[in-house]
Write a structure and sequence with these properties.
Strand order of the largest sheet: 3-2-1-4-7-6-5
Helix content: 25-40%
Number of helices: 7
Largest sheet: 7 strands, mixed
Order of helices and strands: HHHHHHEEEHEEEE
Number of strands: 7
Strand content: 15-25%
Structural class: alpha+beta
Number of domains: 2
């Protein structure tokens, strides 16, 4: 019966009360008595619960589900059963929105820069320092993203250079290659450095990078020859 009365109350103003009572099979006097009755203790507790749940949901910017809302309310001193919180969120049509975590992009298609493929998916080498591969890994920390650039020698399969920074500019890869140049001998005109992404914002004018011992490194994105000086 209360459901019928609640429906009539929700539509009051759109349709005549007399007709709605007739359609619902209830008396008009019974409806007015229900509408004007003071809310019961149960209804008052329900309203308080809804207010608490809605406030906690808005406090989380709409990202918390019923478990986190339940835990937050307990921290605030409101002890409700988790299923009660779940039911209240359903009644209020509160659905948590889980934003996708930000993940920086560290790859780009080599053809976007018109660079040739000098490796052709062959990651073997006949001698040290002939073929190098690099990559950038992003690491989430409490102070923001940390980027780790590594350089591996395809012959030994060992890391011969690395660098860390809070950016992915070309200097990050240049520092990693500088360490590699100190640890392994490059061969002028023969050493190849292959990388999916050798720095964000690299422009053609930045392709030449001076790196330890007079070595000229052509870095930006994919399969870039290393020329020694």
């Amino acid at each position: 019966m209360n459901a019928k009365y609640a429906f009539i109350a929700g539509e009051e103003g759109n349709y005549p009360v007399v007709k709605m009572c007739t359609w619902a099979g209830v008396s008009r006097s019974g409806y007015y008595e229900w509408r004007d009755r003071a809310p019961s203790a149960t209804e008052l507790r329900r309203r308080v619960l809804h207010a608490h749940v809605r406030f906690a949901f808005e406090h989380s910017d709409g990202t918390s589900g019923y478990r986190r809302i339940h835990a937050q309310l307990r921290r605030w001193g409101h002890h409700y059963d988790d299923e009660t919180v779940r039911r209240a969120m359903r009644e209020l049509s509160l659905v948590a929105c889980q934003p996708r975590p930000y993940r920086p992009t560290t790859t780009i298609r080599g053809r976007d820069l018109g660079l040739p493929d000098l490796v052709c998916r062959d990651f073997t080498a006949s001698a040290p320092g002939r073929k190098l591969v690099g990559d950038i890994t992003y690491i989430r920390t409490w102070q923001g993203w940390l980027y780790l650039a590594t350089v591996l020698d395809c012959f030994s399969k060992k890391v011969v250079g690395y660098a860390m920074a809070d950016h992915m500019r070309v200097e990050l890869v240049a520092d990693a290659l500088s360490m590699a140049a100190r640890n392994i001998a490059f061969v002028a005109g023969d050493t190849i450095f292959h990388s999916d992404y050798a720095g964000v914002g690299v422009k053609p004018r930045n392709r030449g990078i001076a790196c330890g011992g007079g070595i000229l490194l052509w870095v930006p994105r994919l399969n870039v020859p290393v020329v020694g000086g």
